[in-house]
Amino acid sequence: MSDQSNSANPANLAQPERRDFMILTAQAMAGLGAAAAIWPFVDSMNPAADTLALASTEVDLSAVAEGQEIKVMWRGKPVFIRHRSAAQIEEAKAVPLTDLPDPEADSARVKEGKEQWLVMVGVCTHLGCVPVGNEAGDYKGWFCPCHGSHYDTSGRIRKGPAPKNLAIPEYSFLSDTTVRIG
């Protein structure tokens, strides 16, 4: 009779049995084992070392004279770096934003205090062609001969089918003559 009274006691029903503990422990260990087995696959999705090496590049600008432009490769894309003259900077600043299909002020496209250096990804925003530079096109900036997009001295779209301005990558100046892209 004491066995029956113990099993009917609600306090005994609230206590977990040893079997419940074993099941929870086995499930926890199975979860940890699955995570340990999956981790190498998840880790293999991280960029390879050679890709990470291309994540940033440093460019020496000391040989680039005013009015000149260079092209460097970064992450497999061309990057245009132009040493703009004071006249080109003033021309870019004077353009009313209402005249631009993709309005963006010149000051938003360059680093403060380094307005003479324009750094842009050299890929046309229409179909991914590489525009020609050296004051090409109707606005003395860049021209995409494939489809006729014209960019100004700030790399902003002015005419043609391209919907956006040339992209500005993340960059910073390490010194007056060295820039890090990426």
Describe what this molecule looks like in 3D.
The longest helix is centred in the first third of the chain and has 26 residues, at 18-43. The protein has 182 residues and is an alpha+beta fold. A hairpin with a 4-residue loop joins strand 6 (141-144) and strand 7 (149-151). The strands form 3 sheets. A 4-stranded antiparallel β-sheet has the order 5-6-7-8, with no helix packed on it. The protein contains 5 helices and 10 strands, in the order H-H-H-H-E-E-E-H-E-E-E-E-E-E-E. It has helices at residues 2-7, 10-14, 18-43, 49-53, 86-94; strands spanning 57-60, 69-74, 77-83, 117-121, 132-136, 141-144, 149-151, 157-159, 171-173, 178-181. The chain folds into 2 domains: 2-43; 51-181, Rieske Iron-sulfur Protein, CATH 2.102.10. The termini are far apart.
Strand content: 15-25%
Mean pLDDT: 85
Count of folded domains: 2
Gyration radius over CA: 31 Å
